[in-house]
Amino acid sequence: MDNNTVTRLLTDFRSYKFAVMNLGQDEREISESMIRPVYAERVPLQISRYDKKYDRERYQRIVTMIESAVEYVLNDDQRTIIMRKYMDRNTMNLSEIADALHKDRKTVSSHHKIAINKLAKALLPIGDEYMEITNFDHMFDTNWRYKEPA
User: For residues 86 and 10, is the Cβ–Cβ distance under 8 A?
Assistant: First the structure.
């Protein structure tokens, strides 16, 4: 896995986590008192080919692998930088992280690069077919305009 793919996975991490949360539990585990997840209401299963179980397993695997790799492969400084840059709710750029950690920007950049390299090795089992997810960040960008595909 290359560094760009790792960066894309980390950038989309919260989208994967949100999808896992909203795909809910396996139908066998859902009781009548539980609130139905968003995707359960989206499309009736008997009409669609939409395979909720496959998506849940796939996204859960990605979330688990990313969380585990960040937790076990990276040292404390690298973990902090990756968490703040990609995984926290309010992400920061490397300059902001350097200021918050009272470290030099080059040091933080170096830790970031090493962390991405380590994660590229650790996340190798995640194939391209597992990473398919639609990122809706453009919906919150006021300057975004639809462009017809080539």
Answer: yes
